Amino acid sequence: MGNPVIVRRIGLLAALALCVVLLALVPKLPPYYVRVVDSILIYIILAVGLNLVVGYAGLLDLGFIAFYAVGAYAYAFLASGQFDIHLPFIVILFIGAAVGALAGILLGFPVLKLRGDYLAIVTLSFGEIIRIAINNADDLTNGPQGIAGLDRASLFGLPLTSPVHFYWLLLALAIIVCAGVYYMERSILGKAWRAMREDQDVVRGLGINTTTLKLLAFALSAAIGGAGGVIFGSFQRFVSPESFTFQESLLVVLIIIIGGVGNIVGVIAGAVVLVILPEVLHFAAQYRLLIYGIVLVAVIVLRPGGLVSPRFNLGFIVRKVRSLWLSPSKT
């Protein structure tokens, strides 16, 4: 019988190799399926960003899609003939994140003292205000007609012209965002957010500035949403208010709830399920929304903590991998 530690290490390497192979095979799929995977990655980025506010800080934000819209229109304004400005994609990516963060701070100040349902209503209203403003600002945004003919994105001289190109970009950004949020979760800031989620009054009584904590959560979350919006605008090469409705905000919130609040692995699982499920239900077009709703209710009732157990999070996986790889292989 072989050494159990070596056997487990071989199993770990096999699992990692399988993941790499699956990710490498995505570009070989037909373009339609690659676009579906691109959509999954976009929603993973958005949901992980929103999870900073909803999952860690305990603040229910129903207007998150507004930051997504801010990023998308930042690209439309700065990389199209709308104002005859054509900045590089990588520059607009950082500008979109910065503008998104600023919008998050502007939203954060008015809601500092709000909690629960009141906070949800105000953030929902903020998202609708942004959408309606975009829809009615004809001279600036072309109103409901949107802005078309956006510049093709290029990264370090390499043009991004196909869903496969955006797949690699989105995969890299998703990994960066997940890793960044994971380390943020384990930091003192992440612990302070979790404490504030449990009881804001106790945290304030300990001398911790909850105002700063909330503004940081909104700003960082909105920055991720803004960056995601920039990539969406460059991918579609067209933006309009119809892409940023309340239904989109609700979908991102549902991804977190269905997958597991405060759990990056759960968010990934939730994004995969909620993006693929409507595609699978194409065979029953007339009843698709009904089946979709039944499945969502069933998951919430049967798995109130989310599809993925709170214990099975990214930190648990990292600890297991580290302990397995660093454990001595005694014979």
Automatic annotation (TrEMBL):
Top-level lineage group: Bacteria
Subcellular locations according to the entry: Cell membrane
Membrane-topology annotation of the record: Multi-pass membrane protein
Classification via InterPro entries: ABC_transp_permease (IPR001851), LivM-like (IPR043428)
Phylogenetic classification of the source organism: Bacteria, Pseudomonadati, Pseudomonadota, Alphaproteobacteria, Hyphomicrobiales
This protein's name: ABC transporter ATP-binding protein
Annotated GO MF terms: ATP binding
PANTHER family: HIGH-AFFINITY BRANCHED-CHAIN AMINO ACID TRANSPORT SYSTEM PERMEASE, HIGH-AFFINITY BRANCHED-CHAIN AMINO ACID TRANSPORT SYSTEM PERMEASE PROTEIN LIVM
Pfam families: BPD_transp_2
UniProt keyword terms in alphabetical order: ATP-binding, Cell membrane, Membrane, Nucleotide-binding, Transmembrane, Transmembrane helix
Main location class: membrane
TM region positions: 40-58, 65-83, 89-109, 116-134, 165-184, 215-238, 250-277, 289-306
Originating organism: Shinella yambaruensis
